[in-house]
Amino acid sequence: MEIFHISAECYPMAKVGGLADVVGALPKYQQNAGHQVRVVVPCYDTKFKNENDFECVHWGNIKLGDFDFLFSVLKERTDKLGYELYLIEIKELFDRPNIYGYEDDIERFLSFQIAVLDWIIARKKNPDIINCHDHHTGLIPFIIKYSYKYEILSKIRTVITIHNGLYQGWFGYDKLHYIPEFDLKHVGFLEWNNSLNSLAVAVKCAHAVTTVSPSYLDEINISANGLEALFNMTRGKSKGILNGIDIEVWNPLKDKMLETHYSIENFEIGKQKNKEKLCERFDLDPAKPLFSFIGRLFNEKGGDLLPQASALALSENFENINILILGSGNPDIEKQLLQLREDYKGNYNVFIGYNEELAHLIYAGSDFILMPSRVEPCGLNQMYALRYGTIPIVRRTGGLRDTVIDFGDNGNGICHDQASVGDVCYSINRAVSLYDNKDNFNSIIKKGMSIDHSWERVCQEYIEIYNQIIQKHEN
Ligand code: GLC
Prior knowledge:
By secondary structure, this protein is of the alpha/beta class. The protein has two domains: 2-244 and 456-474, Rossmann fold; 267-452, Glycogen Phosphorylase B (Rossmann fold), CATH 3.40.50.2000. The chain contains 17 helices and 18 strands. The strands form three sheets. The protein has a nine-stranded mixed beta sheet with strand order 3-4-5-2-1-6-7-11-12, sandwiched between helices. A six-stranded parallel beta sheet has the order 15-14-13-16-17-18, sandwiched between helices. The protein is elongated and about 70 Å long.
């Protein structure tokens, strides 16, 4: 079947978080399974865009209320990513370095969605499935169902995949006229709690809803930033599918970003070499257990717990542990983390920013990875860590609950229930004892390294849903 994935992010073209990793990998495995897969993202001014070769396959202009924009559709020439990658170029809106965070984000992503649909009409061939990802693409299921101009697309089956339900793409009625003309009796689909809500629209109008882990689907029925009741109502067409990871990119035996390659056969020496490299770069001690955090420094990820938890764990275990943090986000958290450098020189360090290469080295060279998330729809870092022989320390929530089981229950990691400084420090103390018991420590590492989180297994679950909604609506 022909499948379109529409998203704001896709690795390596444009990445802020895990959404990019999923949209960069799942399509490759669907294509390998025999489908024709196209991924469409906006054309931002990124390194990938500037270093690769594209051809223009379509151009036109769209109307957004009173604005007119020219757009082009650029195709990556080589298909080297394993699927066809298309960029929607709208210079005024996307020729900027960042993906999100502009005042006109609503205008940007609405224009993107309209341009994608105009292009699909111009192709004169409907795909079987449009899989939208998160709220930035949430209006597509509505527009193709109800906007007059897009009636020809109305038979296409749509799926909304929720990677993060906290962000919903709200906007006011003053922007209602941006949406291509439709019969006003359908306006109720656009609204949730007195505002227009892109994610709610998608959940109401798509033929199927998927979340990126089964536990997250259970959780959003209870807590979903105002959408709980909607998720309850649409439970019948929803399914939680645990994300996979790209085991070709994430392979400690071949990863070009590592100092030394290794596998489950020789991880002890391999990891030690990577740890030495990391410790040298960050002035840490390779003889001590290394706890790392990689990710966005926001409350959602438990980033606010890190300064205090690090200070407490380091003062309790001083001279016994190292902590290394890679991330960026809330400026207050960043500042507090930077300040700690003075007090715990030689045992602690932080790198503020996003650095893919360094992240790979940290997975390889660390002993434990910290994920004290308050909300974690799936979480990929714990899966990367497991594959690289690094024991995850997680709060039991969302996808973390589905992938990490405490070693006390014969599992592969360390779990705690509260997103609190106390729980994080308690887990670090348990980890220090585990580290000292090398047989136990190594056997847990091996258990983690042998888990199969590849997309091959998972991508079939998406295809099953696509087939179900195609058949259901044919009858
Ligand atoms: C979002 C979620 C994260 C998930 C990722 C990919 O970034 O916060 O938990 O793993 O999307 O689905």
